[in-house]
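User: Here's a chain of 116 residues. Predict its fold as tokens.
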Amino acid sequence: MSTFLEDGISSQSSGDYIADTDTDTDNSSLPSHRRWVWYCKLRACPDYYSAWSCKTNFLLHLFDTQVHREDPATRTRQGRRKLAEAWREETAYDLSEPKKRPPEEGNGKENGVDSG
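Assistant: Prediction complete.
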């Protein structure tokens, strides 16, 4: 004999428990063979040009890293999300494309944003 709780759980699919993540939602705007990765483009960050394939982990990086916490642009959730959108790069879904390299210094861009 099953319990009320067991009956309720067995009548639901696993899809009811697995919600779309920010990453899934963002990736849905691309063709199925493409995905986003998020690069840290702040030269002063110890993880400069590291990449995250999970947006949530990238947002945690912005929240947890002191240099980002001290940056007025990333002190708020909204600021971190705006930066995540600006710093994301499209790549192959299976991550088979080479990781992007940091731009050379003095190319007119600072932190991935045009300076002029």
